[in-house]
Design goal:
Elements lengths: L2 H7 L7 H5 L4 H32 L3 H25 L8 H14 L9 H19 L9 H18 L1 H9 L5 H8 L6 H5 L17 H7 L2 H13 L5 H4 L1 H7 L1
Length: 253
């Protein structure tokens, strides 16, 4: 660890974990429940349409599911990065509902293991609903191979994205069952040791939390640091300003 990073780490200041935990809005719980209902209704309709199209388009299932699995890791990583890096829990609506859980997780990584299914996964359903809604109106069938593949891909991707945070939660679970351990050890699900890299201060790498497959690639090309520098250049916003404190964030810019 170089002297620059060591000095930055000594400046880290985070929000109190009890304050963050108590900030889960009751109104957002209602929104989350409605989002899950809408999500499962939409995916149910799309799944029925996919089932009807399988005799003609069965060969699209495997590539669409694999692509959806890979993209779910990437999309989850981008959302994770955005929640960790930008914004404040004091922002109206988005702050307490969507940004707060990211801040809480760095202060108390095991808090996620105490969240129920709704608190863990419903925000992902909320994000996926607009995309699923559009897919409900796209044509599907042997005469519409391109849009059919798109619907297959979006269906699998949103299903995988829905459970991204559940997989993330399992990576923090102290004693997962044997099946989960197998999935984690084979890197089908996020591996806990791999994820520890993200939880090393200043929490600025390895954001992908479905499989983690994209993490080495995005780190090698410096995807997130370059994106941060671009955003900072044009907005003057300071990455991780609230997550680790102003002084530490300024030293790492």
């Amino acid at each position: 660890m170089d002297d620059h990073n060591q000095s930055s780490f000594s400046e880290i200041v985070q929000i109190n974990k009890e304050e963050l935990a108590s900030g889960y809005p009751k109104w957002f719980r209602v929104v989350e429940c409605l989002a899950l209902i809408a999500f499962f209704v939409s995916t149910g309709i799309i799944l029925y349409r996919i089932f009807l199209s399988i005799p003609d388009l069965w060969y699209l299932l495997l590539p669409a599911s694999l692509l959806g699995w890979i993209f779910s890791d990437f999309i989850g990583g981008v959302v994770h990065w955005a929640g960790d890096t930008w914004g404040s829990v004091d922002f109206p609506i988005f702050g307490p509902a969507l940004i707060r859980p990211f801040r809480e997780h760095h202060v108390d990584p095991y808090a996620i293991t105490r969240h129920d299914f709704i608190e863990t996964n419903a925000a992902c359903a909320l994000a996926g609903n607009p995309i699923l809604f559009v897919c409900l109106f796209l044509n599907m069938g042997k005469d519409y191979k391109v849009t059919s593949f798109l619907i297959y891909f979006v269906f699998f991707m949103t299903i995988f994205v829905l459970f991204t945070n559940q997989i993330h939660k399992w990576s923090h679970t102290p004693n997962p069952n044997r099946f989960l351990k197998f999935l984690q050890n084979t890197r089908i699900f996020l591996n806990p040791e791999h994820h520890k890299i993200h939880h090393t201060v200043p929490f600025n790498k390895y954001y992908c939390i479905t499989t983690g497959w994209m993490n080495p690639i995005l780190t090698r090309i410096q995807f997130f640091p370059r994106l941060e520098r671009l955003i900072t250049k044009y907005t003057r916003a300071l990455p991780r300003r609230e997550d680790i404190g102003i002084k530490a964030a300024e030293k790492l810019i």
